[in-house]
Amino acid sequence: MSASKRKGTGWESAVVAYLKENGVAHAERRALNGSTDRGDVAGIPGVVIECKNEKAVSLAAYADETERERVNDGARHAAAWIKRRGKASPADGYVLLSGAGFLRLLADAGYIPPKATVVEHSQAPSSAGWQAFDFAGFVDAACPPRQEGD
Question: For 111-125, what is each residue's pLDDT tens digit?
Fold first, then answer.
C-alpha cells in the first residue's frame, strides 16, 4: 500500500471511529466503487461522506466529487470531511457542503421552510446549470420582520 493510500485509509478510519464515539453506531468504511463511488463512509442513511487527507486542499474538486457520489448513492446529503494539517482528530477537521446542500440540511433540521431548498443542481456538477431560486421569498419566509420592542 502506498504512503498516500495509507494516509487516506487512516483518515477514513479516524472519521469512522469519531462518528461511532459520537453515536453513529453503524458507521463503517465503504469499499471503492470506481466511477460509481458512493463516498468513503457508510452508516448514516441518506448521507454520503467523502474523506480527504491530502497535502494540497482542492475545495472545488472535493465539492464536485462529493456531489457525484451523492447522486450515485441517491442520498439527500453529502459532505467532504477534510483533515486539518497538524491536527489528528476529525473534531478539528473541516466539513465541506455545497450551498444547496447546506440549505437542504437546514430545512431537514427544521431551521428553514422546506420549500427554501428548491435549489438543486440539475445533474452532476460538470453538466447543466443551476435551477432558479427565489431568494427574496426565502428571506421573507425565514426572516420575518422585527416587531417594535424586539
Answer: 998 865 444 554 444
What is the pLDDT, as a whole number, of residue 149?
58
User: What residue ranges in 13-109 does DSSP mark as E strands?
Assistant: 28-29, 41-42, 47-52, 77-82, 94-96
* Assessment of whether the complete model's pTM goes beyond 0.85: no
How far apart are alpha carbons 57 and 66 in whole angstroms?
14
Number of structural domains in the chain: 2
Specify whether 43 is located in the same domain as 84.
Answer: yes
Cα–Cα distance for residue pair 19/48, rounded to 1 Å: 13
Query: Same domain, yes or no, for 65 and 85?
Result: yes
Name the one residue in this structure whose C-alpha cell is 478539528: 92
